[in-house]
Amino acid sequence: MSIADVKKNTDLRMQKSLETLRADLAKVRTGRAHTGILDHVQVEYYGSPTALTQVASVTLIDARTIGVQPFEKKMIAVVEKAIREADLGLNPSTQGDIIRVPTPALTEERRKEMVKLVKSEAEDAKIAIRNIRRDANEGLKKLVKDKECSDDDERRAQDEIQKLTDKAVSDIDRQVVDKEKEVLTV
């Protein structure tokens, strides 16, 4: 393993952490409807758990209502039950062959809880980034110990890894600010 490998691996792992945070923040409900809320709903489809988006078409009917249209008519009750039991605070209702999922407006108290959740997710992501930095620095120390690189090279590589860490943390902070603004907008 070389210094370049350590840096490349570190960058990839940090990008994955940022993607995970982006996905986690997409789950956080805002006052408006968006189809991403239902991305993680699992439906029992012929005995195996399947993503909702694979058994139904998910669209926006209006600003506060999501429309879910199962590809098979017999799946309507199963899909409706899966959405209700997904612990999203949503109450779907069936109208013919389409399931309407109204998203209730958030109260001020609920919005503040959502902001706390967003900050908690961000802190978890920052911890993950710091752990990745620690692993990279240990990898660099091991290279020096095994005499595969010099102390100066290690110091330069640590500086570059710190820059990657700072960039990732600033990305996390930016995502949190954007999501907070979105959650607090009435």
TrEMBL record:
<comment type="similarity">
    <text>Belongs to the RRF family.</text>
</comment>
<dbReference type="InterPro" id="IPR002661">
    <property type="entry name" value="Ribosome_recyc_fac"/>
</dbReference>
<protein>
    <recommendedName>
        <fullName>Ribosome-recycling factor</fullName>
    </recommendedName>
</protein>
<keyword id="KW-0963">Cytoplasm</keyword>
<dbReference type="InterPro" id="IPR036191">
    <property type="entry name" value="RRF_sf"/>
</dbReference>
<dbReference type="Pfam" id="PF01765">
    <property type="entry name" value="RRF"/>
</dbReference>
<dbReference type="GO" id="GO:0005829">
    <property type="term" value="C:cytosol"/>
</dbReference>
<dbReference type="GO" id="GO:0043023">
    <property type="term" value="F:ribosomal large subunit binding"/>
</dbReference>
<keyword id="KW-0175">Coiled coil</keyword>
<keyword id="KW-0648">Protein biosynthesis</keyword>
<comment type="function">
    <text>Responsible for the release of ribosomes from messenger RNA at the termination of protein biosynthesis. May increase the efficiency of translation by recycling ribosomes from one round of translation to another.</text>
</comment>
<dbReference type="InterPro" id="IPR023584">
    <property type="entry name" value="Ribosome_recyc_fac_dom"/>
</dbReference>
<feature type="domain" description="Ribosome recycling factor">
    <location>
        <begin position="22"/>
        <end position="184"/>
    </location>
</feature>
<dbReference type="GO" id="GO:0002184">
    <property type="term" value="P:cytoplasmic translational termination"/>
</dbReference>
<feature type="coiled-coil region">
    <location>
        <begin position="115"/>
        <end position="167"/>
    </location>
</feature>
